[in-house]
Amino acid sequence: MRKYLIAGLLVWMPLGITFLVIRAIVGFLDKTLLLLPHGYQPDNLLGFHIPGLGVVLAIVLVLATGMIVANLLGRRLVNAWESLLSRIPLVRTLYAGVKQIMEAVLAADAKSFRRVLLIEYPRKGVWSLAFMTSDQLGEVQEKTEADVISVFIPTTPNPTSGFVLMVPEHEVIYLDMAVEQGLKMIISMGVVVPDWQKNKLLKQQQAELNK
């Protein structure tokens, strides 16, 4: 009975959690339909609700915004908007901080959260998984003897909280696992361990293709 119960849970639990998460995301994005005029909202036009239309609208809005701000006129509008926000005391701090983080993470050449590391923390001989967040530390680098990098050590099972440390680069070990695999290992409390040999082979194949 125990064997069959565990086998059943392994099927239904991931499906159930995935369904609930997707439903929550779709339900949240469906609220973007409220941006449309009342008479043009799909629920009022069709007479019934179609889940997921908000996702389509959100994607269209993001793409349209990107197309607008990618040209000269769009950049001028954004600069004018940001100049206005910079005059509002609390808003300017929050907006500037969020934008700087997004630019660092989403930039094409960004190194943040692109590498999984192994560092000795909280003491020598004890190793923790970490993610590289930056290697351009400005004043921090100028006032330290060794070349340091910024790393983020997430907590488990909630990886959104953790610690930011400045670690000498020669003291870290770069791992072959992808960021997604590192997050899975942390969230699962070390139960889900990536296939190291497979990751190593993929790294070698990618290096050969880049030559």
TrEMBL record:
Segments traversing the membrane: 7-29, 49-73
Domain of life of the source: Bacteria
A Pfam family assignment: DUF502
Keyword terms: Membrane, Transmembrane, Transmembrane helix
Entry annotated with the keyword Chloroplast: no
Name of protein: DUF502 domain-containing protein
PANTHER family in alphabetical order: COV-LIKE PROTEIN 1 (PTHR31876), PROTEIN LIKE COV 2 (PTHR31876:SF26)
Origin species: Methylophaga thiooxydans DMS010
